[in-house]
Amino acid sequence: MNVGHVGIWSVELRLGDPGEISERAAELDELGWGALWIPGLGGGDVLGDSERLLKATRRLTVATGILSIWRHDAEEIAAGHHQLQQAYGGRLLTGLGVSDPAAAEQAGRPFRPVADMNAYLDRLDHSATPLPARERVLAALGPKLLDLAAQRTAGAHTFLVTPESTADTRRTLGPAATLAPYQAVVLDPDAATARATARSFLSPFIGMAHYARSLRRQGFTEADLAGGGSDRLIDSVVAWGDIEAIGRRVRAHHDAGADHVALHVITTDGAFPRTQWRELAPLAH
Q1: Is the backbone of residue 264 left (phi > 0), alpha (psi -120 to 50) or beta?
Q2: pLDDT at residue 276, rounded to an integer
Q3: C-alpha triplet 212, 183, 19: angle, nearest 5°
Q4: Average pLDDT, the chain
């Protein structure tokens, strides 16, 4: 599936005012972005929210980044995915994740990430309208889930990773699988305010065990994880500065083996970052 070289990852495109979501999506399509990624969050009507974006656009791919297998029935996702593919020209990419032990516990299940994802993929494969492997990706950080992504899906959507980690992931996935890292960005050339914005967003994730493990695998220490993240950690997983600085980070991921980079513009007000999306648009080409 063609997702282009660079896309937009946005909470606002899922939780914002529906009318403004449609307007902003249409503009992003015209600006040339390859894909629009929306988060799975706590569940809800992610297929309906995906359809809103598909309806508002003509060309780009809409991707879920990431839908939790604990909050969505596999057969319903497969059926809904099929319907949207038929209606909108095959422009939906379904991203799937195993979340964390707490999500499994809420579903009344033990947490066995690889086995759980394998079973979910089996259900997608054996649904009345199967969800094809080429139209799904996994949220994968550890080597076992990355292997599964390469074997049973189009590839991987990685979160809070450095370009060096992207290079390692490419070696694990092999040359054929799609690799689409998430990249947080702050369009602010002032180091103090940019890091403060980034830290306020990242702090909750750094405190989650599975993301902390991933960051340790990337070479960060307990000191880097403390206090909302050291400057070294912030600078490594968030691209901040002007458009040239953001562009360098995007190129670093591509040089490391990424096929696509999903840019998440971090702001402090929760509004649609329309100005930033427009400023970053040259990176889409």
Answers
A1: beta
A2: 98
A3: 115
A4: 96
Per-residue pLDDT reduced to its tens digit, 1-36: 899 999 999 999 999 999 999 999 999 999 999 999
Is 72:46 a contact under the CB 8 Å cutoff? yes
d(CA 160, CA 198): 12
**DSSP code of 126?**
T
Closest by Cα among 229, 238, 227 to 194:
238
In the structure encoding, which two tokens stand for residue 87, read together?
């209606």
Q: pLDDT by residue (tens digit) across 140-192?
A: 988 999 999 999 999 999 999 999 999 999 999 999 999 999 999 999 999 99
For the chain, where are the alpha helices, taking DSSP H only?
12-15, 18-31, 46-56, 74-87, 101-106, 113-125, 143-152, 163-173, 191-206, 209-217, 222-225, 231-237, 243-255, 274-280
Q: For residue 284, how many other CB atoms are within 10 A of its CB? A: 20
Question: What is the DSSP code string of 89-117?
Answer: TS-EEEEEE---HHHHHHTT----HHHHH
Average pLDDT over residues 127-136: 98
Q: Which two tokens stand for residue 159?
A: 């979160």
List the domains of the chain with CATH numbers: 6-182+259-284 (3.20.20.30)
Show the 3-state SS of 145-192. Answer: HHHHHHHHCCEECCCCCCHHHHHHHHHHHCCCCEECCEEEEEECCCHH
Q: How many CA atoms lie within 13 A of 113 on its CB side?
A: 20
